[in-house]
Automatic annotation (TrEMBL):
Residue ranges annotated for the Orn/DAP/Arg decarboxylase 2 N-terminal domain, each copy included: 30-276
Keywords of this entry: Pyridoxal phosphate
Protein species of origin: Fictibacillus norfolkensis
Cofactors: pyridoxal 5'-phosphate
InterPro entries for this protein: Ala_racemase/Decarboxylase_C (IPR009006), De-COase2_N (IPR022644), Orn/DAP/Arg_de-COase (IPR000183), PLP-binding_barrel (IPR029066)
Name recorded for this polypeptide: Alanine racemase
Gene3D superfamilies: Alanine racemase, Lyase, Ornithine Decarboxylase, Chain A, domain 1
Amino acid sequence: METTKIDLKLTIQEMKKKFGTPFFIFDETKLKKQYNLIRQAVPNEVSIYYSMKSNPNPTICKLLLDEGASIEVASIGEYRSLQDLGVQHQTIFTGPGKSRAEVRTVLENGILCINAESLQEIKVIQEEAKKLGITAPIALRVNPNLSSKGSRMISAGLPSQFGIDEDQIEKVIEHLLAFENVQLKGLHVYQGTQNFNLVSHEEAIKKMFSLVRWVQDRFEIELSLLGLGGGFGVPAFLEEKPFDIRSYGAILGRELKGNEDLNLQLVYIESGRFITSEMGAYVTEVLYTKKSHDKNYAILDGGTHHRAFSSLMGRNFKQPLPVSVIKKNAAGLEHKAKEEQRYTLVGKLCTPTDIIQSGVVLPEVDPEDLIIFPNSGAYGLSCGNVHFLSHEIPREYLLQKDGEISDVSWL
């Protein structure tokens, strides 16, 4: 099916008239483009797991499954969504705080692998697997010692609730091999999110292949799985450049070829924000404008309860990506005002922390104008405090490849 050429601003204006605001709109074409950007960059032998936490909308998950992705979950709620899609047997379960009941649920209903993050967790998996009379497939999430840094949210090489420190791996495996109802399938790493640094990615890849080789030699066992993480950076500020996924793929290809003798059956990377961020826009309407102590405010009908991460970016000293304005009488065209003003964009929450973005230079805005926030396909509603003050939850819409709009709301 060919993609129809669409005037997105006109579409958004029509949606506002029909559905009201605020709302999220997801572009199917952009979603698939981003996924296939990774697929074409990395070797065919490498599987891509979608990190469901970035956008757990079932329609988005189904579209990515149809494109060939697998899915990684980080909660029992995400797992149950995959049960509804009938693909829970293909998934990987990660996260540092899996409860005993959650472990039992995934073991009862099928799971490809559980990424274990502590010896205590492994003991719980062993106990629940024994009760069920099965062998649980697990991988160890490693917190490796890495020298290079590149992520805003580093979770490797530092004290962390995530993973097992590299210098503890030997002792943990010694304990694990004494358990009868767990099978060590492999190793997993995730060094941090929003990582633009190819050097740190390369170091982590080399480290993990080396650790697999060391484990196989040290314990005379065969591992079949290696998870190499992701966290590929997505520009959120003007000075940031897109992550070089092609160079990453070339690095991964070289290391994969150099370690063919390990005979790994599954080597995978994971990605969430990189796949979903650019497909989404968050559309709000200006309710009021006001000036307070020489500072201009635009009060919107949305807020940080819909995009939790935006409250952090709104206070960042860097310049965020620009927002778009659609004037109420501009026939869908961006208004070119003679004068621009600096605004603080705030939401409707009764709290001074509800700052969506500050220091935004815009054409003069008026009530009923639309403000559109780009890169809103990841960490939106499911990451926000949507029940705070009991405001209505925005709808989520999908702009399909044929130009049709469908309501894909699920919360």
